[in-house]
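FOLDING PROBLEM:
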Amino acid sequence: MSTEKTPIVFTLSPGADPQGEVQRLADDMGFGSSKFKFLALGQGMEGKAKELIEGGSIRGHWVMLNNCHLLVNWLKKMEAIIENL
């Protein structure tokens, strides 16, 4: 079971994109776009990702980060952010 402080990690095949399915699940559960935050990672997105993770934990939002492989060097920092929640 996941909580606002327990991440779920999707390990995907190349070309797979579960964002639409997760969005539909959020809608079905009454979250809609107001409590489901999605961010495609890339250069310069570390601060926004940190903000979404911390804010999601406080407000109970779902946060989906896509393209984590583009910020491999930042993943250790992301792990620390999550551990400090």
